[in-house]
Amino acid sequence: MTGPEMTSPSPGTTAGKSPGDIAALPFEAAMSELEAIVRRLEEGRVELEESIAIFERGEALKRHCETLLRNAEARIEKIALGPDGAPAGVVPLDPQE
To answer: Which tens digit of pLDDT belongs to each residue from 30-42?
Structure first.
């Protein structure tokens, strides 16, 4: 059923990693792991159950990266409101505020 190549962890594997560890990853590490997952899935040499598991981890990594990017954007831009209180665009963040 499974040969040694299927049971030994390959580079970029998610064996032993829990979804909770994603929150601690910096953007670059999360993106690197996500890219490794995409490569493995594109190669098509992963068994179905592992494909599902790494796909799910990839989705969690993608959400984490998106959150980190939104947070970074929020730190460097703020929404400018018009006289009527409606959003009128974004302006650079004033670090003095």
So the answer is: 999 999 999 999 9
Closest by CA to 51, choosing from 37, 62, 65, 61, is: 37
Which pLDDT belongs to residue 2?
A: 39
* 50 burial level (CB within 10 Å; 0-12, 13-18, 19+): middle
Compute the distance between CA of residue 59 and CA of residue 97 in angstroms, rounded to an integer. 35
CB 49 within 8 A of CB 43: no
Three-class SS state of 84: coil
- HSE-CB of 8 using CA atoms within 13 angstroms: 5
